[in-house]
Design goal:
With 221 residues, the protein is of the alpha/beta class. It has 9 helices and 8 strands. The longest helix is centred in the N-terminal third of the chain and has 16 residues, at 5-20. The mean pLDDT is 96. The structure holds pyridoxal-5'-phosphate. Pyridoxal-5'-phosphate is lined by residues 33, 35, 56, 77-78, 161, 191-193, 207-211.
């Protein structure tokens, strides 16, 4: 087994944060964000037993994972264009970035057509940032209702990326509140800089990239 101190460290920190919050550590899933990383960075983490990975681009994910797909749970954590829905439904286990009606309709059609149903998270733009994807907090209830009702989509949980320049806690609390009033128990929130805080606020999965793999090589557009 390869020595992967970064993975051990992140898993230990998840454990400690869960215990400090009075939570069972096994209720917090680590999504290892491998986007843009060289395979040499990803492979040791895979060999050490990590099986859940996050990618932000459909094509890049297919290139990186097609030969290693078996036994892996892949999460799409980046924006999904409707012209990539077919590939995304075929390739990903979880799509965390359901963020608009057009995409919801397209996913609903493809799920019926293909008979394949990735688990779905609705992304909420808790900071109401114009440049960021996600439904606005005030529109989340209606959007979730549309997805579940007319479109017959099963929604597993909510996902958010808090504003980079604000304390994340209030955003995590808001996401949890929206989830609770919609009867959703799964919360994808927390990244390298704030996953312990997210666990304190109830995260059931944390998306950790740079703390596991080091700084990403290429800047992402
Ligand atoms: C890149 C990315 C992450 C991981 O970020 P790190 O700060 O490197 O842990 C998590 N979530 C989303 C949506 C991302 O795009």
């Amino acid at each position: 087994m390869t020595n992967t101190p970064a993975l051990e460290d992140v898993l230990a920190r998840i454990d400690r944060a869960a215990q400090a919050a009075g939570r069972d550590p096994s209720t917090v899933q680590l999504v290892a964000v491998s986007k843009t990383q060289a395979w040499e960075q990803v492979e040791p983490v895979l060999r050490a037993g990590q099986r859940v990975f996050g990618e932000n681009r459909v094509q890049e994910a297919m290139t990186r994972w097609s030969d290693h797909r078996e036994g892996i749970e892949l999460h799409l954590i980046g924006p999904l264009q409707t012209n990539k829905v077919k590939e995304a439904v075929a390739f990903f286990d979880v799509i965390e970035t359901l963020d608009r009606e057009k995409l919801a309709r397209s996913l609903a059609e493809e799920i019926v057509r293909s008979g394949k149903s990735p688990r779905l998270y609705v992304q909420v733009n808790t900071g109401e940032e114009p440049q960021k994807a996600g439904v606005l907090p005030g529109e989340a209830d209606a959007f979730i209702a549309l997805c579940r009702g007319e479109l017959k989509l099963q929604i597993e949980g909510l996902m958010a990326i808090p504003p980079a320049d604000q304390p994340a806690g209030p955003h995590f609390a808001l996401l949890r509140k929206i989830a609770a009033r919609n009867g959703l128990e799964r919360l994808s929130m927390g990244m390298s800089g704030d996953f312990e805080t997210a666990i304190r606020f109830g995260a059931t999965s944390v998306r950790v990239g740079s703390a596991l793999f080091g700084a990403r090589p290429a800047p992402q557009a």
